[in-house]
Design goal:
The complex is a heterodimer of chains A (333) and B (211). Chain A has 13 helices and no strands. Chain A is an all-alpha fold. Chain A is globular and about 65 Å long. The model of chain A has no long low-confidence stretch (mean pLDDT 85). Chain B contains ten helices and no strands. Chain B has helices at residues 2-24, 28-48, 52-77, 79-86, 96-120, 124-128, 138-146, 151-172, 184-188, 192-195. In chain B, helix 1 packs antiparallel against helix 2 (28-48) and helix 2 (28-48) runs antiparallel to helix 3 (52-77). Chain B is elongated, with a radius of gyration of 28 Å. The model of chain B has no long low-confidence stretch (mean pLDDT 80). The chains are: A mainly alpha (333), B mainly alpha (211). Chain A binds chain B through residues 4, 79, 109-111, 114-115, 117-118, 121-122, 124-125, 128-129, 132, 140, 143-144, 147-148, 151, 154, 158, 170-171, 299-300, 332, and chain B through 3, 29, 33, 36, 52-53, 56-57, 59-60, 63-65, 68-69, 71-72, 75-76, 137-140, 182.
């Protein structure tokens, strides 16, 4: 019994060691997002609370905590309360498999990439549940839109993952990183990286694909009826998902914790820092896209997903596998 | 080992209870939510016996795609209102119950055959199942079997799914008149010369604009 508890405590300690920084960085990333967005538009952005406005997110969080939580009378109460919880939980549990360095990974499971893909495909439930349980037109329309959108773009993300797996020969995330020691996959699979980036934007409902919460048409989409801490949880879950997508991109294409060049000043920096740099790089790209690109129309979104990305990434699977077969580079004989 | 069986009983209890709730709950959308819970707990059971690939695929395919579409359809159809008409307390000729009984009887006998075969010929499973080494991951061993011994069946099932998909699209597709479609090629290849037209407008007549 004693050993059981000691194992439990070390696991809980490890989980907290991972989750607390993730939550703090989610708050910081919201600030960064608004800052980058503001700089592109020649504004200052949040710069009042704390140095450079760094504590803006904390001030916002405090405000949300003290706001009243309103549960609409005609809503389905249990599902209504459950929806932000589902979003937040799903956004956090996927961090368990992200490898930060060779030995710093919470769960080094065999099917890590499938786990990530499965959890990100479950993310749609928070939105559908919230939209349906609100029992109101705008949230419902937002939920329906986002269900169709996320399912469509998951398909192309799945095919892109197949491309990477063909080059690795394993579903383990650490193996995927180690396979990029000589060459990051962003170089041979560059078109796939671009498509992954755009699909990640659509998967996380970021602009230009933020149709589920398009304010001009749907007020705030599935979040319309939410207030106070429940709204903040949706919001935190969304940003945690964005960070996760960036981490996934960094692990799949940018060599995870590996340093870009394996010579002294670079490889002296510990792995987790490299991963964090790469995540931040991808996130700043996300923020720049948000600041520059106008919102897509819904039929354009569907056309892009099904008629352009899916055929092209399927074609690239054929290309990658024929290339690997022809030059005898297949990782598994 | 105790923890293992505790988790097993927790997951199977959730699976059974939610499977019952799928049929019992009055709200159709709740039924779908319970179905999702059922899928999730069954995939947990898969993972617990070491079939992590099957468990994850179960999550991705059933929970991530199939159940979303289920939920989508159920929410859109507003089945809750129609249910009052379908399953009213009075006996309306009883078209549903015989069909349901027939299906459940067939499933019951199938189960008896399977479990009975197990009981009377205990080595049946051993003679049927393939030699799978525990050394490699089960993703690899499934791939080894699926793409070598059963490649034909695998391809045929893929073709059947493709045909079903095309069939569904053909059946539901209807051409509507007067729909304006966006063509990127047309938009990009438009030149200034054909886009702008300088017209000398006649007095009191105006200009006729054709699209």
């Amino acid at each position: 019994m004693d050993s059981y508890f000691s194992i439990l405590f070390t696991e809980v300690y490890k989980i907290l060691f991972l989750l607390v920084p993730v939550l703090v960085s989610v708050a910081m990333i919201v600030w960064l997002d608004r800052r980058v967005w503001a700089f592109v538009q020649k504004r200052r952005g949040p710069n009042v609370v704390g140095p450079f406005g760094l504590f803006q997110s904390l001030a916002d969080a405090l405000k949300y905590i003290f706001k009243e939580i309103i549960i609409p009378a005609s809503s389905n109460k249990l599902v209504f309360v459950l929806a932000p919880v589902v979003t937040m939980t799903l956004a956090l549990i996927s961090w368990a498999v992200i490898p930060f360095s060779e030995d710093f990974v919470l769960a080094d499971i065999n099917v890590g990439i499938l786990y990530l893909f499965a959890v990100s495909s479950l993310g749609v439930y928070g939105i559908i549940m919230g939209g349906w349980a609100s029992n109101s037109k705008y949230p419902f329309l937002g939920a329906i839109r986002s269900a169709a959108q996320m399912v469509s773009y998951e398909v192309s993300i799945g095919v892109i993952i197949i491309n990477v797996l063909l080059c690795v020969g394993s579903l383990n995330l650490s193996d995927i990183v180690m396979a990029q020691q000589n060459l990051w996959f962003v170089i041979p699979l560059f078109p796939m990286f671009v498509i992954f980036f755009i699909s990640a934007l659509a998967e996380t409902n970021r602009p230009p694909f933020d149709l589920p919460e398009a304010e001009a048409e749907l007020v705030a989409g599935y979040q319309t009826e939410y207030s106070g801490m429940m709204y903040a949880m949706f919001w935190l879950g969304e940003y945690a998902n964005i960070l996760l997508m960036c981490a996934m991109g960094a692990v799949l294409f940018l060599g995870g914790w590996l340093s870009p060049i394996d010579i002294f000043p670079f490889n002296a920096i510990p792995g987790p820092f490299w991963l964090i740099f790469k995540i931040l790089f991808l996130f700043i790209l996300f923020a720049l896209v948000k600041a520059t690109v106008p919102r897509y129309r819904y039929d354009q979104l569907m056309k892009l997903g099904w008629k352009i990305f899916l055929p092209f990434s399927l074609f690239y699977v054929v290309l990658t596998s024929s290339f690997l077969l022809y030059f005898d580079l297949l990782p598994v004989k | 080992m105790i923890a293992h069986s505790v988790f097993f009983y927790i997951f199977s209890l959730i699976a059974i209870v939610s499977a019952v709730m799928v049929t019992v709950s009055k709200n159709t959308v709740h039924s779908v939510f319970f179905l999702i819970l059922d899928f999730i707990s069954i995939s947990c059971l898969f993972i617990m016996i070491g079939a992590e690939f099957l468990g994850m695929i179960m999550l991705i395919v059933y929970v991530g795609a199939v159940a979303v579409l289920f939920l989508f359809v159920v929410m859109m159809l507003n089945v809750a209102e129609q249910k009052g008409q379908w399953f009213s307390s009075r006996w309306d000729g009883g078209t549903h119950i015989p069909v349901g009984l027939l299906v459940s009887l067939i499933i019951f006998f199938e189960l008896i055959i399977v479990i009975g075969g197990w009981k009377y010929k205990p080595d049946l499973l051993n003679s049927l199942s393939l030699n799978i080494s525990t050394e490699v991951t089960n993703t690899r061993s499934i791939g080894n079997v699926l793409y070598t011994d059963y490649i034909l069946l695998f391809q045929i099932s893929g073709m059947i799914l493709l045909v079903a998909m095309i069939g569904a699209i053909v059946l539901t597709y209807r051409e509507r008149a007067g729909v304006k479609r966006q063509s990127y090629v047309k938009q990009i290849s438009r030149e200034r010369a054909e886009g702008v037209d300088l017209v000398e407008a006649e007095k009191n007549k105006g200009v006729k604009i054709d699209a």
